[in-house]
Structure to design on (559 residues):
């Protein structure tokens, strides 16, 4: 509107912007902000505040010290192990499949089929996913039956769907598709010229991967792994439906605390949830930092 | 066939087996309710159960309410940010990403602690909290879809054109912006629908009679019916996400994550 805008000195522009800040435009955001505060920020903040309060409402650090209880330490350990294992296996397996449909030269029809399926499977979790694996690897499951008929009894050999490794196999059902969805675009971003340039300089395939492709992909590979970690770490429904709440995970412990003050200490429940948020927030912060590093190369 | 192609096929086939076998096993299991033969008895039992329809309807109604309210919250806000407050965009992005950082079990924990003395004391309070929580869960998908949609249409020109023809701001939002965002709105709606229909954590911990808790409850008393429910639920997810993918073809939108 104002033709003089371009010629205005920067300082004046800043001052005008500052003045514009004083306008009432932000009122338009009020409905959303009120909702977000009431149903997201306030509940989250109340967990933080109550973590530092005793039953009478006085400030205390006791709740955080109480997190050292053996069953809580073991819940965090198992949750972190489960998230790490499913993130690494899901990440590697998903990478190999994403590689196949991008650089690996599989037909386009396979590519679009796999990407479509991944879109659905990454959303197929919780109770129905648990049922699907009970029908597959439970005591009466189809694969258990097949293996039985050729003389291998899974459950006699120490396998149990309702424990750590059963959960791992089940979680991979949403972890692998998620990896494929995230990594396929990143692998598409690897330019053909980079490979050709490396080959012209005499690099072998493994040297190209070792010195060119992997370093470029590293931020998105690590970022994906972190996202997968958070994805598994926050999961509750799948684990609960599969084990009936019998496995000691942080999310399950918080659920039990909600249903009936399982820890017999409301403040400790808050500290437990706080620890979960801190770990999640830390991993997402790391993720977005790595994202920015990747987009620099692949942008 | 060179080695690269071989390994590509190898991992693809291995993955496909892992993806397909549980689906086959679930369908197979759901057909075994009658001894010695395949039958649809498990499905018949489910459709005979009034609780199935009650919980299904409950979740569907909740999903529709959450979608409508999410539209009403996000569209005007995103519109306002695009038009007047572009500097707030990072703030919006952060706020709408928070549901990924706060696990559902922690969100519901906070909600219960915050509203146990107020909302949760009333009859409909639990349902209000459930709907609010689902609106929060819809934020990442809904905001991203709508934000992308708004980048694609020139909302400033549309607004100025509408205003110069004498439209007030309600007319601009509801008769100009909303219709132009059809695809984005439906996109966010179907993902939200898929998430809400299968959601267990929040509904169960708020003790609401939703579809997710119903599925879980059934598994404690029935053997074959849960598999039939899993098949139905998977078909539902497939349908909703399938529509999203049809809508999103060519726009390069992707969406990740869901109820764990």
């Amino acid at each position: 509107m104002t033709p003089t805008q371009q010629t205005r000195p920067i300082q004046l522009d800043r001052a005008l912007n500052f003045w514009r800040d004083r306008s009432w435009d932000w009122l338009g955001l009020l409905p959303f902000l009120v909702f977000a505060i009431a149903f997201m920020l306030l509940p989250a903040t109340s967990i933080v505040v109550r973590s530092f309060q005793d039953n009478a409402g006085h400030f205390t650090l006791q709740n955080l010290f109480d997190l050292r209880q053996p069953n809580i330490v073991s819940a965090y350990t198992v949750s972190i192990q489960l998230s790490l294992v499913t993130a690494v296996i899901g990440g590697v397996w998903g990478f190999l499949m994403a590689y196949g449909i991008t650089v690996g030269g599989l037909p386009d029809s396979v590519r679009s089929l796999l990407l479509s399926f991944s879109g659905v499977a990454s959303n197929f979790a919780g109770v129905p996913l648990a049922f699907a694996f009970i029908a597959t690897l439970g005591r009466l499951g189809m694969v258990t039956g097949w293996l039985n008929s050729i003389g291998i009894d899974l459950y006699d050999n120490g396998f149990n769907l309702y424990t750590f490794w059963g959960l791992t196999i089940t979680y991979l059902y949403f972890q692998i598709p998620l990896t494929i969805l995230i990594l396929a675009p990143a692998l598409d971003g690897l330019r053909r010229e980079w490979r050709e340039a490396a080959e012209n300089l005499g690099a072998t395939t493994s040297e190209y991967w070792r010195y060119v492709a992997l370093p470029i992909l590293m931020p998105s590979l690590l970022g994906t792994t972190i996202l997968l970690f958070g994805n598994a770490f926050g999961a509750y429904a799948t684990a609960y439906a599969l084990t009936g709440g019998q496995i000691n995970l942080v999310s399950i412990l918080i659920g039990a605390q909600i249903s009936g003050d399982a820890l017999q200490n409301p403040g400790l429940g808050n500290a437990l949830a706080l620890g979960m948020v801190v770990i999640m927030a830390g991993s997402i912060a790391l993720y977005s930092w790595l994202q920015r590093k990747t987009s620099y190369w692949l942008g | 066939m060179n080695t690269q192609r071989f390994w590509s096929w190898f991992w693809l086939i291995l993955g496909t087996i892992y993806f397909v076998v549980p689906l086959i096993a679930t369908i197979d299991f759901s057909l075994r309710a009658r001894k010695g033969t395949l039958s649809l008895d498990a499905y018949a039992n489910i459709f005979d159960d009034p609780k199935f329809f009650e919980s299904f309807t409950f979740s569907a109604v909740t999903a529709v309410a959450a979608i409508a309210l999410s539209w009403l919250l996000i569209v005007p806000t995103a519109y306002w940010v695009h038009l007047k407050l572009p500097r707030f965009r990072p703030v919006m992005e952060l706020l709408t990403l928070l549901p990924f950082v706060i696990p559902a079990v922690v969100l519901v924990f906070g909600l219960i602690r915050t509203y146990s003395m107020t909302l949760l004391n009333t009859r409909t309070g639990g349902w209000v909290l459930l709907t609010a929580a689902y609106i929060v869960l819809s934020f990442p998908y809904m905001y991203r879809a709508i934000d992308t949609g708004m980048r694609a249409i020139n909302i400033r020109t549309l607004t100025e054109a509408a205003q110069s023809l004498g439209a007030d701001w309600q007319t601009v939002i509801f008769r100009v912006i909303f219709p132009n965002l059809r695809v984005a709105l439906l996109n966010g709606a179907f993902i939200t629908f898929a998430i809400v229909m299968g959601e267990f954590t929040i509904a169960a911990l708020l003790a609401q009679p939703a579809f997710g808790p119903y599925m879980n409850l059934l598994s404690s008393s029935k053997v074959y019916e849960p598999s039939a429910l899993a098949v139905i639920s998977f078909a539902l997810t497939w349908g909703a996400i399938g529509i999203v993918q049809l809508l999103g073809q060519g726009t390069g939108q992707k969406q990740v994550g869901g109820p764990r």
Observations:
- Chain B is about 75% helix and 0% strand.
